[in-house]
Amino acid sequence: MYLFTEIGSNVKNMKQLEYLVLAKQTKKVINELRQGVIKPYTEVIDVCWGDPHRAGIKPLSFVRQVLAACLYPQLLESDKLLVDVRQRAKRLLEACDGGSVGSYSPTTGIPEISQKVSEFIKKRDGGVPSYPENIYISPGSQWSLANILNVLVNPEASLRTGVLTPVPCHITTITSLMGMGAVVIPYYLNEEQGWTLQVEELQRALESVKGVCNPVALYVINPGNPSGLVQSRKSIQEVIQFVSEKRLFLLADEVYQDCVFGETAEFVSYKKVLAELGPPLSDTVELASFHSASKGFMGECGLRAGYVELVNVDPTVMQYIENLFSTFSGAPTLGQIALEVMTNPPQPGDPSYPLYKKEMQQIRTTLVQNVKRVYEVLNSLPGFSCQPVEGGAFAFPTIHLPPKAIQRAKEAGMEPDTFYCLRLVEEAGLLISPGCEFGQKEATYHIRFCIMTPQDTMVEILKRLSNFHTKFVKEFS
Amino acid sequence: MYLFTEIGSNVKNMKQLEYLVLAKQTKKVINELRQGVIKPYTEVIDVCWGDPHRAGIKPLSFVRQVLAACLYPQLLESDKLLVDVRQRAKRLLEACDGGSVGSYSPTTGIPEISQKVSEFIKKRDGGVPSYPENIYISPGSQWSLANILNVLVNPEASLRTGVLTPVPCHITTITSLMGMGAVVIPYYLNEEQGWTLQVEELQRALESVKGVCNPVALYVINPGNPSGLVQSRKSIQEVIQFVSEKRLFLLADEVYQDCVFGETAEFVSYKKVLAELGPPLSDTVELASFHSASKGFMGECGLRAGYVELVNVDPTVMQYIENLFSTFSGAPTLGQIALEVMTNPPQPGDPSYPLYKKEMQQIRTTLVQNVKRVYEVLNSLPGFSCQPVEGGAFAFPTIHLPPKAIQRAKEAGMEPDTFYCLRLVEEAGLLISPGCEFGQKEATYHIRFCIMTPQDTMVEILKRLSNFHTKFVKEFS
Questions:
Q1: What CATH number has the domain spanning B3-56+359-475?
Q2: Do B55 and A98 make contact, defined as CB atoms within 8 angstroms?
Q3: Which family does the UniProt entry place this protein in (chains A, B) (predicted)?
Q4: Contacts of B88 in chain A (CB under 8 A)
Q5: Residues A259-304: pLDDT tens digits?
Q6: ipTM reported for the complex, 2 dp
């Protein structure tokens, strides 16, 4: 069963999403705990979202010091902050109108920060040029995506606009597409082969909607959310060739580009591969690449900032997009500053570098260990099967549910994996998401949870999950 | 000429707004200054927006100290911050998931902050109850308004949805309405009588669209933007009776509720007056009231947070609205914290109170002086006529343009007041907005500028404006 088809085509008709059911149940559980009800756990662990701070990962000191000094410039006079923190804060305040983070910024972002972002991209891609005027800063990558979709999707066309979208896919994109009246054209990632994206499947998906809708774009997520796959250069090349042939706009969600854990995996950007392929592809394929201050090791979700870089986009279309980004005030200044620090971190030789490096390494070690632990524990658990998590923030294992549990869920009018997750939060105090929120093949079931947690939290998560699962299977077998 | 009718009915068709023309010109002027071109001024003063920090008003220390401590909790250990700052920051951090402002917050706002906002509203309105579940926090009041409009406006109805909207009105609301395919039904405020809102005019406006569109809501701005009027209780009562009779949803933009300068003027909220009127009105009139951390003396525009309180709204509609607020991640946590401090400032007896009170009084004195100065200077200038600015952040005087100037503007294909503002930024380095952006009666011309500046800046603004105007009139007479 595929949830997408159940959501109405308009936000106004949007069904209560699965997570609202779960959120309600979780609220009940938390209230009971507060009222002193005795349960096998004392607090609920919530790993539904890619939100490292919520799970206990500490923020990066350099980021927070710069932000605090920008907010309260009296701190610039204190010698408690290292000189590079103070210099950075001063420079960033000079880029704010009136020298205050309290001023409105230009709706597409503070120009000095767009400049730094473009320098970061150029460096990341081994010298492929990047231009600040092609970068739009917004309150988050999903916000950027919605603006681009707004231009691509024509809700009034007789043949509805279609966007090729991976299965599984995180729900926010699906909601955006639906809200704009677009048709989600699902293409299935190949779970058995580590959630790889196969061009034959794109081809099949495209053919399946002939005459039904007008496909205009392909949406890809690399590193995958929730799949955890990091795409190879070859796979990216194939995708680019495909969109070029089919004249599709390429929407590349690359927000987890810093989160790569697989030993052989490496993040290569779509833009870099596009440039490597040379003309005519490199001059013609329209690409939007999304990134965010919420993601990566920084994990500043609460600050709300991301950017999109546009490549090869028609100038008229660029003007429409710019108008949309100008409709509301832009990203919060402090989120933009976090984005600057993310793309321009302390370098060797800088006074803040040693601590920055240490904190980054600690997070990396934690996540690499978590991913290893998840893989080992889940694959040793009967009824579980988990592909390696090469990148991103999530594990998305298959769970094999006993037929009686599936039957019981259906009687209760809910998806079997939602039923599983509801029981999990109730009985084990662990809040995770059911696979049906992300899309999955008929009669397969999954769960998604964030792997960005301290190591002891991950040990506890896996313990709760294992114990619960064993009991659950016993109950329904 | 009325600009609204020139903007397409869809964001995609949106015309280049007047301010984009001005912004381009300003950029050119600033670049020339940087390149050493000698002009009669050394920098451009930009008072287009209600953005006090940009103009040089200082942020409130208590707000910034709490925010900095939330961002960088090591500051909580320092005794440089007063104890109430530290206590406040600790309490707010406890309200954030994982104790970090870097975590996602619930999409409708951090519950503890909605609670504080509702307590503020109850106190403001002399005890009229306010419930946190009716309060939605978002990245700004315009964002909230767009969500409410999204529910009220049906873009697919055969008879288009109409919203009664004041003339003059700030452009962001007009853009939102247009973007949603709504019909803007203009009602004219009475300039000669101090920009008062007259029910007969509402009546006229409503009748003028019979059979043309389906009016569903009335949008009011109190204190006015750009009108500067503070509505009397009696006027509010009349408006409430009108919307009740006509079964219109009442959208009350009350973001400048703290900015009241007139000696006899007093802000009374629509909600309070509604409660005073008693049943059946107080139980039936659907009201949304908007407020924002960007406005008032705090002026934290860059932090992006506001709220809307809904009164008497049908529970089914509330569910739609909640879904919309849940579509994207909510307001940045730091903006929400600013909102908490705005609605819950230091009280007498608190260690931070003396400085807080002093800073607030300084800002108030400055603004009262500015408003007085604007009124006196402009009304003594031939060709200018300015109503008293009782509240809000703007002056919106009439300018009488010489026929030759109007002719020249028309030849250049632009609105006469845009022509005036273009010349003003070029020749005097003063960036303000033309009245045509806000709507004005045929053959009348206005300018809008922000009065929230330091006193010496206001002296300079009025000097530049007076000198330019005298020269301009001479040139075209």
A1: 3.90.1150.10
A2: yes
A3: Belongs to the class-I pyridoxal-phosphate-dependent aminotransferase family. Alanine aminotransferase subfamily.
A4: none
A5: 999 888 999 999 999 999 999 999 999 999 999 999 989 999 999 9
A6: 0.93
